[in-house]
Amino acid sequence: MPRVVNTSWPIKEEISRRFFLALERLVELNKVASLEAFCNEYGLSAPKYRELRLGYGVTPKPDYKPRYKGIELEAAHYITACYPISAKWLLTGCGKMLTYEVQN
């Protein structure tokens, strides 16, 4: 039986987009210095996440398709376990982004 190749990952793309929205909010709140700092802190590939940001970031590059399907599970874990980002919001888009109000 031939293998079906899925070229569309809508849920993973939505989660990736919310990840970059959350990361941008953490930068605004001075909880994270930058994408590069977040990646370095948790052993993630900064070049990979810079490329993903071009496709899924706050202001994505029009018609840009990153080589990667989306963020890694580890990135989702760190942003929700170490910062006030709701895991429910990150995974489903339901509820509020922040688990509690953060003062600048």
Keywords:
434 Repressor (Amino-terminal Domain); mainly alpha; 51% helix; 5 helices; globular; 104 residues; 0% strand
Description:
The structure is a single chain. This protein has 104 residues and is mainly α. It has one domain: 434 Repressor (Amino-terminal Domain) (Orthogonal Bundle), CATH 1.10.260. Helix content is 51%, strand content 0%. It has 5 helices and no strands. Helix 1 packs across helix 3. The longest helix is centred in the first third of the chain and has 19 residues. It is globular, with a radius of gyration of 14 Å. It starts with 9 loop residues before the first helix and ends in a 12-residue tail after the last helix. The mean pLDDT is 92.
Q: Class by helix and strand content?
A: mainly alpha
CATH class label: Mainly Alpha
- Report the CATH architecture: Orthogonal Bundle
Instruction: Give the number of DSSP strands.
Output: 0
Oligomerization:
single chain
Whole-number count of domains:
1
Can you tell me the CATH topology? 434 Repressor (Amino-terminal Domain)
Note the topology:
Blueprint: H1 10-28, H2 35-42, H3 46-56, H4 73-81, H5 87-92
Helix pairs in contact: 1-3
Quick rundown:
This protein is mainly α. Helices cover 51% and strands 0% of the residues. The chain has five helices and no strands.
